[in-house]
Design a protein that fits this description.
Elements lengths: L2 E4 L22 H9 L7 E4 L9 H13 L3 E4 L11 H10 L5 E3 L5 E3 L3 E6 L11 H20 L4 E6 L4 E2 L2 E2 L1 H10 L3 E4 L13 E3 L2 E5 L10 E4 L3
Parallel strand pairs: 1-2, 2-3, 3-4, 6-7, 7-10, 10-12
Antiparallel strand pairs: 1-13, 5-6, 8-9, 11-12
Bound molecules: fe (ii) ion.
Length: 232
């Protein structure tokens, strides 16, 4: 039983949005994702850190959900900035149920207990800097902070592993509000995605203020889910 993470699958089974136009790193990416997941087992859990499907609504993303559902083990998903199909959790759960999708659950104001003592927490996150951010950005940031705090609170005394779409530490940027919540709740590790291509050179990985930061966007990790907890 192990915990894995990968972000930004950007699947496009029903939408003509092939990612290989963004360069050779994305060539045959769907088959590479399928191959990447093939090494996992039914007792494993994978957190998908947003930007799952290019579909514009649930129906358009159905084939992508079916593909994700076919991967071994349990999948926990959170919202990315391109997940236009995202809806209320009750609508998404109803849609999955009526389409026989059984292995995907949602990280949204909640947490998932993992093993004896760990918890999977998270939300989408946001890029926000007080000096340059607009009022609109501030509003989104505050909502994301509330979601993250609800998730961290729900984890109680468990060891907290946080999964976001937007990295809170990237290049010279640090999202002080999110990092403050990490400190307050004693977060152990933070995985994020969203960053691709040339921007990957600004990725921050390693320990920052007592939290281990890891980038799991699909092209950064060669489309292979990354082991976070447990053994491969
Ligand atoms: Fe993104």
């Amino acid at each position: 039983m192990s915990l894995y993470a990968i972000g930004d699958l950007h699947l496009s089974s029903s939408v003509n949005k092939p990612m290989d136009v963004f360069g050779s790193a994305w060539e045959n990416y769907t088959s590479r994702i399928i191959e990447g997941f093939s090494t996992l087992g039914e007792n494993d859990t994978t957190v998908l850190c947003g930007d799952l499907s290019w579909g514009m609504d649930l129906a358009q993303s159905l084939d992508d959900f079916k593909l994700i559902d076919s991967f071994p083990g349990k999948k926990i998903i959170l919202k990315g900035n391109h997940d236009y199909w995202w809806n209320t959790v009750s609508k998404m759960k109803g849609f999955f149920e009526s389409n026989g999708i059984t292995s995907i659950d949602f990280l949204n104001n909640n947490c998932f207990e993992y093993g004896e003592s760990a918890a999977v927490c998270g939300t989408r996150g946001w890029f926000y800097e007080e000096e340059t951010g607009s009022e609109h950005d501030k509003k989104i940031m505050n909502r994301e902070l509330m979601r993250l705090e609800a998730s961290l609170k729900a984890a109680g005394e468990r060891e907290k592993y946080v999964f976001l779409h937007y990295p809170p530490k990237f290049g010279s940027y640090a999202c002080v509000e999110i990092l403050e919540l990490f400190r307050k709740y004693g977060v152990k590790c933070c995985c994020a995605g969203h960053i691709h291509g040339k921007s990957l050179k600004y990725v921050f990985e390693g320990e920052y203020d007592g939290v281990y930061h890891k980038m799991v966007s699909a092209d950064y990790v060669s489309f292979q889910p990354q082991l976070i907890l447990g053994s491969a």
